[in-house]
Predict the 3D structure of the following.
Amino acid sequence: MAAPHWTFLLAVCVASFLTAEASKNAPVGQFFVFELQKEVYQADFNPVSKIYGQVPNDPIVFKCNKQFSPDLPGWLRYTQRHPHDNGFLYGTPMEEDRGKHIIEITVINRRTYETFEDSVIINVVGRAKLMPFQAEFFIPRREIEKVLPPSVQYDILQDVQKMWGADDLGFVNITSALDRGGRVPLPLPGYFEGVYVKLGSEAYFSKYCSGSCLVASNCVEWCRTSLIDLSSPEPPPPAPTMGSGILETGGEFDPPESPPPRDFFPDYVATVIFPFVLALILFLLLAYIMCCRREGLEKRDAMTPELQLHHHHTIIENTDELRSMAGTREGVPAPLSTLPMFNRRTGERPLPLQRTYQPDNIPLIMAQQEPNVDTLPRK
Ligand SMILES: *[C@@H]1O[C@H](CO)[C@@H](O)[C@H](O)[C@H]1NC(C)=O
């Protein structure tokens, strides 16, 4: 029973050994790459399964920053194409970056959302070699992650060594074309972002010819190649000439002429007076229309008492006419909807037969009847 326990302890020891801080040297002026091996961190997430040789292939992403800082140092860049690929820290340190850089790496398992911290120490040390003669090549059929692994860098070095004729070549910089204003390619096979590779040597470009490339996708585009000669150092800018520190005497101070006075009146008229006058005219116009030209009011005021009396008579005449028209509907029972449902006082419902009204008694408008009048036949 003790065996699994021991294997687990062993696994924990192995894991803690693997996550121990790695320390790397990065010489100034030389390209530096640190590959974040996904498989190693994968095993750290699953220490026991590593012993038994079955490590699941989880998606893993990395977040990198300089210790006590939110981001990486300026010279160091990070890239990872896909959570199933390795990540890379890369860049070229310069003289001012010398010293110890502690890079914190947060490893996130995107399946289980477990995380842990790791760190790598990068010591930027002095120049290992001077590379005054440099050349930059553009490799169109590559992406930055495909060029960063050491084996691919070696292949490119071999190709360039053959055409340069120097054997001390070193990488100065590797940059994605996207960082140089390149365009994101279509997501189709055969379209690549492109990579700029800068190599340097101590030797002059003795022969410079387009050689063949071992790996087709490493071939360079010749029209985008540039040679850089840093062998003669730039002369430092001339030191500023120091004066005596005392202002020279003589000559009167001539103040600069003030600009000619400007007339602001036209601006004032255009921005203040004109809109104000316009608003006033519109206000007066609206006031005149509202107060003096309301036709509806005039008509009502013009209704004399005679006219009102006439209206009243017309209404009464029309009502009488309607009543007489209703009276001619002989034999047809009144619509049920016009009849009361039951006697209000007794609650008695009229028998259907009793509903045959005399035409004269049919109330035209029920609501006008007195509430307590029995609407049943009165005969
Ligand atoms: C390397 O390339 C990057 C991106 O183009 C640039 O910012 C950096 O200055 C370059 N470094 C050197 C040493 O050329």
